[in-house]
Amino acid sequence: MNHRLWVVPLLGVPCVLYAAVDVSFSGGVQVEARSYRADSLIGAPDVRERTGLNAYAPVSIRLGALSLSLRYEAYLPPLQGYDRRYAGTGIPFRALEYRAGNLHLTLGSFYEQFGSGMILRTYEERLLGIDNSLDGVRFRWEASGIRLTGFIARQRRFFEWSGLIRGVDVELFPSVWGVGAPVTWRLGASVVSKYQPDTDPLYRLPENVLAYAIRGAWQWHSWQLNVEWAYKYNDPSALNRYSYNPGTGLYVSLSGELATASILLQAKRVDNMAFYSDRTASGTVSVLNYMPPLSKQHTYRLATLYAYASQPGGEIGAAAECLLPFPEGSPLGGDGGGTLTLSYCRIHGLDTLHTDEFRYRSPFPGIGKELFLEELTVEHTAFWTPRLKSTVMLVRQIYNRDVSEGVRGYGLIWNWIAIADVAYTFAPRHTLRAEAQYLWTRQDRGSWLFALLEYTISPTWGMTLWDEFNFGNPHREARFHYPGTALTVTLQRVKIALGYGRQRAGIVCVGGVCRYMPAAHGLSVSLTAAL
Known about the structure:
Blueprint: E1 3-10, E2 13-35, E3 51-63, E4 66-75, E5 88-100, E6 103-110, E7 124-125, E8 130-131, E9 134-143, E10 146-157, E11 160-172, E12 184-195, E13 208-220, E14 223-232, E15 247-258, E16 261-271, E17 314-326, E18 338-350, E19 353-354, E20 360-361, E21 367-383, E22 388-400, H1 401-405, E23 412-427, E24 430-440, E25 448-457, E26 461-469, E27 481-491, E28 494-503, E29 506-510, E30 513-517, E31 520-530
């Protein structure tokens, strides 16, 4: 909402002043709550508090060139699967920003990404319990064909801050100056440094660790090539077994159109690129960087059972995806058209040879024998009629559970996943959607079935029933059902969802970043409101 009139007290008398600038306000509330009951059959623990709650309330006020952002958070206590060190309440995100002309200045909290993120990406992902924002001073200046960013800050660590992070990024757009036409291109270079005192009684650790990256992007018609190379000086920690090797990263992507097909090719090699503001941290806590994923980011339930987590310690792989459109009226397009998507990726570990206790050799490209992931996906979507839509998917996976989940004794898991998703609108605003999923494997916990039925009265009501059944578990006493139900109500800017059921233990991933979610049984409540 915008206002140009202010009412202010002047000597006790309300006065109306004309404001030459706009004032805008935005905000919202998100509450995620869950009750827990012990269920020894599926391994759901006996939670002492019986309930968990995560709440977020962001508020933003803009006054001309100035804006103020705050976010209140409460974890009373954190939902199961989130780090218990989030427990409590506070305002961990608060920022004052000034934008005028070419200048953008931030005081307080902010998120930043340089290039693809291999040496710096801070972001929030509530599903994973990640918020690695920076808190300090950031300066950005943009002019014709150039963008310069610099900052000095600490990084969020739950309700506190850790480390000292400094960074500079320069990006050039020569095409703005008419250089290189008809190819549109840009170049970039980044430097990030972190400082942490050396308090280790055994090892001599570097207190300042520098990382830098260079990148380029070229576009010609529909084709675009992106290349980024990163280097990180040695950063020994418990996470990399106190290796004094430097870190390196290379990411290449090529996308474009060939006739009517859309094509995406990717390749990546990373070696010892875990970058944390706190060398004692692990997992998703105090992470400074991000490895672009090669594997397909699935959303269907059984396709996420074996979700691959990117390995910044060392991996090399390639991926290809091709999207073929089918025109309206064709046998595979239906009345509204359709698409066929083919995707494939293969990721290996690196070929390394230890030369002493703290160093190793890894010649380029260094493709190791150990397979981390191989995945082939075929997906077809079509609008057969204005009322009928379907998606059919077949996935073939070879998944290294030991590597991706940090466990032992499982090795490679071979599986097939078949998915059918059909939605039919049988009356205005009334849609019935059904999912059937089947995962077949002889390893690990055996085969699974998943079925879902969803009835929607748009835009207000949604009702869902589902069941996940581990019918192929080699241990007959562990062949459990995981049923559930949910009701969703949307009223203008307020959305409320109520659910009840069982949740299996497993890995949850977003963009190749994963966390473990324990088994649970109980009631869930979700409230989202926008102001």
